[in-house]
Amino acid sequence: KAGVTQTPRYLIKTRGQQVTLSCSPISGHRSVSWYQQTPGQGLQFLFEYFSETQRNKGNFPGRFSGRQFSNSRSEMNVSTLELGDSALYLCASSLLASGGTEAFFGQGTRLTVV
Amino acid sequence: SQQGEEDPQALSIQEGENATMNCSYKTSINNLQWYRQNSGRGLVHLILIRSNEREKHSGRLRVTLDTSKKSSSLLITASRAADTASYFCATDYNDYKLSFGAGTTVTVRA
Question: Which among B31, B100, B103 is the nearest to A100, CB-wise?
Answer without folding.
Answer: B31
